[in-house]
Amino acid sequence: MLITHMGWCQSTLRIDTKAAAPFDTTFFSNINTQGLYDSQLYWQNWLIRKNFEFEKNRGELSMIADLKALHPYFRDKMFLLIAKCKAKGIQIEVVESFRTSTKQAEYFGMGRKYTRSAGGNSKHQYGLACDVVPIVNGKPVWENKALWRKIGVEGEKLGLRWGGRWRHPYDPAHFEWTNGITTQELKAGIFPKPTHTNYPCLDEDMAMLKKVWQTWEKKQKEAWQQLQDKEKMVSASSEIP
Ligand SMILES: [Zn+2]
What we know:
Elements: H1 26-34, E1 48-49, E2 63-64, H2 72-87, E3 91-96, H3 101-110, E4 129-136, E5 139-140, H4 145-157, E6 161-162, E7 174-176, H5 183-187, H6 202-238
Antiparallel strand pairs: 1-2, 3-4, 4-5, 4-7, 6-7
Helix pairs in contact: 2-4
The structure holds zinc ion.
The site of zinc ion (ZN) has 4 residues, from strand 4.
């Protein structure tokens, strides 16, 4: 089913119902009734996560955790992954989806435990990567390898690349999809295209999405500047004897 929104065509994965994929379309009808796609304030409606929300230090800047922030094809795969896990009794939450260059730079400054990618090198910056965490009894579970494997296998069945296969670093929270597109190509503005025809409006969707990403880039750059200014003021005042 293709759901169209005002102005934003919003390509959607055509679900094969025979495959009994649990896909919740209420999400899309909900955002449709909000009529926010064309609004300049649409970006403000994205789900964000605060630092330590999942009990880990993820830096001062908020994380964007909205699946709408992702490339439409990858977004739908992530919806499916969440649904597939749910069907297996595993609750997963999105920790971070799209990442601004300012946020990426913050991680880079936090050390190699956080990222080895400098600005422009993370798939998150192109809406093609997403971090999740399983929730057990209301708590995030980061260290359960068997549980991660179950989630990872579900992602791989959907054609996603899973960071749990990597050793440097082992990153089981991370899923990505690039359809073979390299980081260099992404940097040059080339985005992957699904090989099937279920996304007839992909170019329009991507153009709109890129505009929203730019708004976030601007907002987080300003937020980062404010944090730096505040730090400077604090250290200046502490120098007063
Ligand atoms: Zn990641």
